[in-house]
Amino acid sequence: MANRTVLNKAPGTVDALRQAAQQHYAALSPRLQQVAELLLRDPQAIATDSSRDLAQTLGLPPATLTRFAKVMGYATFKEIQALYKQQYVNLPRDYLERIKRAEASGPASTEQPALYLDFAHAVQQSLQATALEISQSKLREAADLLRGAREVWIHGVRRAYPVALYLQYLLLKVGVPASQLDTSGGLLEPSLGRMHPQGVLLVVTYSPHAAETEQVLEKALQLQVPTIAFSDPVPSSHAKHMRVLFAIREGEVMGFRALSSSMYVAQALALQIAQDSLAAKAPTRARVAGKRNAP
């Protein structure tokens, strides 16, 4: 299946390509899966490195990159790189270069490294990349789903829990009826019984995914509940079933991953909902004002 095109039309944007790579990941050969993982994990490398260097990084022959491109509907891998270069051309490289120069020229010291600075730099780069990768169309699609839902159920455990809790706070603030699925005291299964197709599941999950989250996603699929997910760009068997998937690359230092970019996307989503709600009310306000001013 690896040599056969899996898409009728090549994706025209980085976001569409990343989503296609997630959805068709299981249909790819192990070597092509490595290429897909690199597209999701390190988009800047795709934009800036040569195909020969990328192949060397993966330990694959350059022809594998071309084969991946053809499977995704492109003629050459350079077409994929052109998409990435177009999206990342506005990345503030001068700022990143200043960081690199400062780190390279820093005086040798026997003191412990300032890991809090390294973490701040990682978070900054993650936020910059997320701002470039997130699309308004995806935000609007998610906002429309949430605004039109009879109920919204939010789920996130362990590391994902703070983001899930903040999403509930934000959604309630913009008038969306949102509640957490109860995972305490063995109540998750009864909580899942509340879900129905007229609502929306908003799930926050990062790899490795928690067993509870797998259970929630399976139930949502069974009940045909539309799902919006905040996750990381690691291929998942559930990705193809998501109505909207925000694949977020968080800053990481020594295995410690931040949540800053996820919080940023949560705020961006809430602002989109508020903006769309105000826009929907504008014609009604105009009609009311017109009636008041009528002779």
What report would you give on this structure?
It is built from 13 helices and seven strands. By secondary structure, the chain is α/β, with parallel strands linked by helices. The protein has two domains: 14-88, Arc Repressor Mutant, subunit A (Orthogonal Bundle), CATH 1.10.10.10; 136-282, Glucose-6-phosphate isomerase like protein, domain 1 (Rossmann fold, 3-Layer(aba) Sandwich), CATH 3.40.50.10490. The strands form two sheets. Strands 2-1-3-4-5 form a five-stranded parallel β-sheet, with helices on both faces. Helix 12 (211-223) links the parallel strand 3 and strand 4. The model has no long low-confidence stretch (mean pLDDT 83).
Main attributes?
single chain; 295 residues; alpha/beta; Arc Repressor Mutant, subunit A; Rossmann fold; 2 domains; 13 helices; 8% strand
Summarize this structure briefly:
This protein is of the alpha/beta class and 295 residues long. Helix content is 57%, strand content 8%. It folds into two domains: 14-88, Orthogonal Bundle (Arc Repressor Mutant, subunit A), CATH 1.10.10; 136-282, Rossmann fold, CATH 3.40.50.
Helices, strands, pairings?
Blueprint: H1 14-23, H2 30-41, H3 43-48, H4 51-58, H5 62-71, H6 77-88, H7 93-105, H8 115-133, H9 136-148, E1 152-155, H10 161-173, E2 178-180, H11 188-192, E3 200-204, H12 211-223, E4 227-231, E5 244-247, E6 252-253, E7 256-257, H13 260-293
Helix pairs in contact: 2-5, 5-6, 8-13, 9-13, 10-13
